[in-house]
From TrEMBL:
Transmembrane segments annotated in the record for this chain: 86-104, 110-127, 134-154, 181-205
InterPro entries: HATPase_C_sf (IPR036890), HATPase_dom (IPR003594), Sensor_HK_TwoCompSys (IPR050482), Sig_transdc_His_kin_sub3_dim/P (IPR011712)
GO molecular function, a single term: protein dimerization activity
Gene3D superfamilies: 1.20.5.1930, Histidine kinase-like ATPase, C-terminal domain (3.30.565.10)
Organism per entry: Phycicoccus flavus
Signal transduction histidine kinase subgroup 3 dimerisation and phosphoacceptor domain residues: 236-301
Domain Histidine kinase/HSP90-like ATPase: 356-443
EC top class, as a word: transferase
Designated name of the protein: histidine kinase
Region (Disordered): 444-474
EC identifiers of the protein: 2.7.13.3
Short name of any one Pfam family annotated for the protein: HisKA_3
Length: 474
C-alpha cells in the first residue's frame, strides 16, 4: 500500500473544500428569502389544519398556539439560511429535536421536513468557513442519529411502528422481525434524508466555486487581452516613430547636403549641380512616398476580417547599395561590402531582420551626414548561417564631430531599440584611431528556407573566407 496516499479523512476534507482558499460571498437577506419563508409557513399551517380535519391530531395534547408557533418558527429560520448558514442549520437541528420530543406528529409533517432539509443543505452550501461547517454538520448528524438510537433503546419508536402496522412482536412475516425491520427502515430513511441534504449542499457549493473561478479566469483573460492590445498599440507607435525619424532624418539630411553642393557648383559646374538637384528630387520623392505609407497605416482602422494591408515592401539588404551610393558626395566617399558565408545567404534573411539592418545603416549614415566631417565611410554587412548565425553591420567613418551639432539623441536610441527587438548587440562610439564606428550584430538562428542552422551549403568556420563576395557601391 502506498504510504503517501491520502487517508479517507484527508480525502473527505478535500471533497468538502476544507483547505480551499475560495470563500463564497455572504449575501444579505433579500426578497427571495422572505418569499420562501412565507410560502413554507403558509403551506405548513394550511396542511397542519387539513391533517387536523382528518382526525390525525386527536392524541396531540399541545395547545393550538404551540403547534402554529412550531410551524411558523421553523419556516422563519430559513430567512437567514444564506446569511448565517451554519447557525441556521444548528438552530434547525435544535428545533427538530425539541418539536420531535414535544409534538412528534407536527415534526413529521411534510412542511417541517422540507424546512429541516433546506436548512441543513443551505448550511453546507453557503458556509464560508469549511472547517467550522464540517464540525457543525458532524455534531448535528451525531445528535440526530443518537436521538433516533435513544428512541429505539427506550422502545418508543418501535412501539409506535408496531402500533401503526398492527402487527405482533413475535410474528415474523418477512425477511426480518418487526423490531429489527423498524430499526433498519428508520435508519435508512434518516441516512438518505440527512446524507442527501449534506451531499446536495456540497455539490451546490462546488458548483458555485467552479462558476466563480471561471468568471475570475475570464476576467483575467479580458485584462490580459486588454494589456496585450495596449502593448501592441504602443509597440506599433514606437515602430512608426522610428520609421518616421529614420525616413525624415535621412532624406532631409541628404537634401540639405545635396542643396549645399548644388549651390557651391552651380556657377562653375552645371552638370554637378544638375546631379545634386536630381538627388534632391529623388530623396524628396522617396521621403514623401515612405511617409505616405506610414500615414496610411495610421489612418487604416484594422478589422477582424480584414486581410493584410496593401503597403509597399519594406526596404531590405537589396536596397543597401543604392542607400550607400546616395551617401557619396563630392567631399565624401561611401563604400559598401557584403560578406556572405554562402552564396545567396543574404537573400534568405527574414524580411523583418533585413529591414532592421537597412534602417540601422540608414540611421548611421544620417548621423555621419549631420554630425561628422568624415571624407570616407565604409559600410560592411556580414551574413553568416550556421549554429552561431548572425547578420552583422558595421559603419565606420574617419571624421570628427562637427562643431555645433549634438549626438546621442533619437537616432542612437532608435538603433538600440531596433537591436533590442531582435536580441541584437550594439557597439557604437568613437574609435581610438579616429573616426566613429557603429556595429550591430543581429542573431540569426534559423534559415528562411526552413533548414536547420549549420545544415545548408557553405556553413562552417571558414565559410566567410571562402565565399566572401564584396559588392562596392559606385
Amino acid at each position: 500500500m502506498d504510504a503517501s496516499a491520502p487517508t479517507p479523512l484527508v480525502r473527505l476534507g478535500r471533497w468538502f473544500g476544507v483547505d480551499d482558499p475560495w470563500q463564497r460571498p455572504r449575501p444579505a437577506v433579500d426578497r427571495s428569502d422572505v418569499l420562501l419563508a412565507l410560502a413554507l409557513e403558509a403551506f405548513g399551517l394550511v396542511t397542519l389544519e387539513l391533517v387536523r380535519s382528518v382526525g390525525a391530531l386527536q392524541e396531540l395534547t399541545a395547545p393550538l398556539w404551540a403547534q402554529w408557533l412550531a410551524v411558523s418558527s421553523g419556516a422563519v429560520l430559513l430567512l437567514g439560511r444564506r446569511r448565517w448558514p451554519v447557525t441556521v442549520a444548528a438552530l434547525a437541528a435544535t428545533h427538530l429535536v425539541v418539536v420531535g420530543v414535544t409534538m412528534p406528529v407536527v415534526m413529521g409533517q411534510l412542511t417541517m421536513q422540507v424546512v429541516y432539509f433546506v436548512a441543513i443543505m443551505s448550511g453546507v452550501a453557503w458556509a464560508r468557513d469549511r472547517r467550522w461547517m464540517l464540525a457543525a454538520v458532524g455534531v448535528i448528524l451525531v445528535v440526530m442519529f443518537s436521538w433516533v438510537a435513544l428512541q429505539f433503546a427506550v422502545g418508543n419508536a418501535a412501539q409506535r411502528f408496531l402500533d401503526s402496522a398492527g402487527g405482533d412482536v413475535t410474528e415474523r412475516v418477512g425477511l426480518l422481525g418487526p423490531v429489527p425491520a423498524a430499526v433498519l427502515l428508520t435508519l435508512a430513511v434518516n441516512v438518505v434524508y440527512f446524507g442527501g441534504a449534506v451531499v446536495i449542499g456540497q455539490l451546490m457549493w462546488r458548483t458555485a466555486r467552479d462558476r466563480a473561478l471561471l468568471e475570475d479566469q475570464a476576467g483575467t483573460i479580458r485584462a490580459q487581452a486588454g494589456e496585450l492590445r495596449t502593448r501592441a498599440v504602443t509597440e506599433e507607435r514606437l515602430r512608426i516613430a522610428r520609421e518616421l525619424h529614420d525616413v525624415v532624418a535621412h532624406h532631409v539630411s541628404v537634401i540639405g547636403i545635396q542643396a549645399a553642393a548644388a549651390r557651391r557648383v552651380m556657377g562653375r559646374d552645371p552638370d554637378a549641380a544638375d546631379r545634386a538637384l536630381g538627388g534632391i528630387e529623388g530623396s524628396s520623392r522617396e521621403a514623401v512616398t515612405s511617409m505616405r505609407g506610414l500615414l496610411g497605416t495610421l489612418r487604416t482602422a484594422p478589422t477582424v476580417d480584414a486581410g493584410p494591408a496593401d503597403r509597399t515592401p519594406q526596404p531590405g539588404l537589396g536596397q543597401l547599395p543604392a542607400l550607400v551610393a546616395a551617401a557619396s558626395t563630392a567631399g565624401r566617399r561611401a563604400t559598401y561590402d557584403l560578406v556572405e558565408s554562402a552564396p545567396g545567404a543574404a537573400e534568405v534573411v527574414p524580411a523583418p531582420l533585413a529591414h532592421s539592418v537597412y534602417r540601422t545603416v540608414q540611421e548611421a549614415l544620417t548621423n555621419v551626414e549631420k554630425h561628422s566631417t568624415a571624407t570616407r565611410v565604409s559600410v560592411v554587412v556580414r551574413v553568416r548561417r550556421g549554429p552561431d548565425g548572425h547578420v552583422e553591420l558595421e559603419v565606420v567613418d574617419d571624421g570628427r564631430p562637427r562643431p555645433g551639432t549634438s549626438t546621442g539623441g533619437l537616432g542612437q536610441l532608435g538603433i538600440r531599440e531596433r537591436a533590442a527587438s531582435h536580441s541584437g548587440v550594439v557597439d557604437l562610439g568613437p574609435r581610438a584611431t579616429g573616426g566613429y564606428r557603429v556595429r550591430v550584430r543581429y542573431p540569426w538562428t534559423s534559415g528562411a528556407d526552413g533548414t536547420r542552422p549549420g545544415t545548408g551549403p557553405g556553413a562552417g568556420p571558414s565559410a566567410d573566407r571562402r565565399t566572401a563576395t564584396p559588392a562596392r557601391a559606385r
